[in-house]
Amino acid sequence: MRHYFGRNTALVAVLLVTTSMAQAEDVEVLHWWTSGGEAAALNVLKQDLAAKSIGWIDMPVAGGGGEAAMTTLRARVTAGDAPTAVQMLGFDIQDWAIEGKLANLDTVAAEEGWDAVVPAALQAFSKYDGHWVAAPVNVHSTNWVWANKSILDGLGIAQPTTWEEFVAAMQKVKDSGKTALAHGGQPWQDATMFDGVVLSVGGVEFYKKAFIDLDPAALGSDQMVEVFNRMATLRSFADDNFSGRDWNLASAMVINNEAAFQIMGDWAKGEFLKAGKVPGTDFLCFRVPGTQGDVSFNSDQFAMFAQTDPAAQAAQSEMARAIMSPSFQSAFNVVKGSVPARTDVPNDAFDACGKQGMAELAEASANGTLVGSIAHGHANKAAVKNAIYDVVTAHFNGEYDAATAVTNLVSAVEAAK
Ligand code: BGC
């Protein structure tokens, strides 16, 4: 009896060790969440996974828009050393799926009912060939302006609702000696402003024709000349040191009363919150004037790279399950500045900007005014995106005028598509 009991205990012990080994399996996570606000949001994820005994190996690659992260990823995969989970945007997910590198998440997706709660616009990127290959953690949007309330109040500037009012407001700030537009001159940041400017000129119809359908007539139109003219206007309101500045340092200029406005995706809100600022009191969030009702979105998803080790596969599934839980989606996105990637998460925990973001996303999705961000890989594959970046940035830096930019845009897109 004693002997039998002893053997059984040993068996249980072995099982426990095996199970805890499987549970303690690490995920190596490649991401570009390196700013203060981003790191705070990442901590919410790390802590959630730690509570589920999923170990975390951090692989940060700084650089908004994820270009540098994607270069590192390519090198890792080529070397036969793919990370377990990778923060990824839109068309990049599809590209890796086409290459056959991603894991199939159908089992966990079915167990958790993802089909019913993830918006179709996101599923278009999370699924390949009808199979789930990525878990969306959020929905960001790029056509936002972040404004310093005390500067606006001090100068008697009301929240602008049209492009003309916005330009007049920036002029007033500039005349006062402060920086009107906080901007970081990096191609992805120029392109992020471009998303909103395209919408402000021609609305979603023009945006879709030019940047989703890549119609040469729309790309080469007079409206596009106006888009580049507006970009040049924006540049005239940035300070002299904008070149190469990181986006979060531009946010800090608005936070620290040095600049009035920043046009940036809602990850900027994460920086304001990290600095203890309150929406409506310290800062304002509003759509790029002239784009109310339109939403240019991007969604951070975790793509899982296929593994052969069952324990690693189990850790990937558990990470995906954790990411998709409604309570996690609320806790994470409240800090990140984004909104949930599922339609059934209550908005109670969100601040005014978050509630507005959630309502406008639902509205735009119902009205057909939701478009994928050009700058953040949700309108085109990387080659086209990069071709657009090149033209937008060269023009923004004064290398050529608006008419030449349009000519170059048409040929660059044609060559890349
Ligand atoms: C990502 C955000 C990130 C931002 C700046 C975007 O491409 O979707 O999650 O905060 O880049 O790094």
Explain what this protein looks like in three dimensions:
The structure is a single chain. The chain has 417 residues and is of the alpha/beta class. The protein is 55% helix and 13% strand. A five-stranded mixed beta sheet has the order 2-1-3-13-6, with helices on both faces. It has a four-stranded mixed beta sheet with strand order 9-10-8-11, with helices on both faces. Strands 7-12-14 form a three-stranded mixed beta sheet. Helix 2 (36-51) links the parallel strand 1 (26-31) and strand 2. Helix 10 packs antiparallel against helix 12 (222-236) and helix 18 (382-396) packs antiparallel against helix 19. 49% of the residues are buried. Residues 1-23 have low confidence and may be disordered. Bound molecules: beta-D-glucopyranose. Beta-D-glucopyranose binds at residues 32, 38, 64-66, 89, 140, 267, 298, 300, 376.
Counting DSSP E segments of at least 2 residues, the number of strands comes to 14
Number of helices: 19
Rounded to an integer, what's the Rg over CA atoms? 23 Å
For the termini, the CA-CA separation is 75 Å
Structural class: alpha/beta
Strand order of the largest sheet: 2-1-3-13-6
Shape: globular
Report the sheet with the most strands, covering strand number, pairing sense and barrel closure. Answer: 5 strands, mixed
Percentage of residues in helical conformation: 55-70%
Query: What is the beta-strand fraction?
Result: 5-15%
Distinct ligands: beta-D-glucopyranose
Low-confidence stretches: 1-23
Rounded mean pLDDT is 94
